[in-house]
């Protein structure tokens, strides 16, 4: 598994010129178009050295973006990290709770907790292992999920 948090914070979607809701097939098309455009072998020999360097850097960035977004597992991990970063930017954490304090819902295999506004915080079993912040489905409150060690 690739550790997304170790990679410098870049918007891999914007590097490919794609929307975060794009499917892998659309991402692949954008990747292929860009990788051909910036491939070092496709660059003219009469351009300044600085321009060639920029194209090579762009080529490397495009390739890195595809390595993350072209793989379902790393894409999911990256998307979860982006979502968590967005939540951190929304505002302060309202409370810290342990996952074990949340109610288990067997029907949809998720954990949930009532919010003071009447809404609820919910997270799937799979996401619970990777996500630390959960937003209420009704208001802007955020809770941090802790795990017993």
From TrEMBL:
Ranges for domain J: 11-82
Principal location: cytoplasm
Pathway where this protein functions: Protein modification; peptidyl-diphthamide biosynthesis
InterPro entries, alphabetized: DnaJ_domain, DPH_MB_dom, DPH_MB_sf, J_dom_sf
Coiled coil: none
Subcellular location field: Cytoplasm, Cytoskeleton
GO CC annotation terms, alphabetical: actin cytoskeleton
Swiss-Prot/TrEMBL keywords: Cytoplasm, Cytoskeleton, Electron transport, Iron, Metal-binding, Transport, Zinc
Gene Ontology terms, MF aspect: ATPase activator activity; ferrous iron binding; zinc ion binding
Top-rank lineage group of the source organism: Eukaryota
DPH-type MB domain residues: 93-148
Cross-referenced Pfam families: DnaJ, Zn_ribbon_CSL
Family according to the record: Belongs to the DPH4 family.
Quaternary structure, from the entry: Monomer and homooligomer. Iron binding promotes oligomerization.
Name the UniProt record assigns to this protein: DnaJ homolog subfamily C member 24
Organism of provenance: Propithecus coquereli (Coquerel's sifaka)
Lineage summary: Eukaryota, Metazoa, Chordata, Craniata, Vertebrata
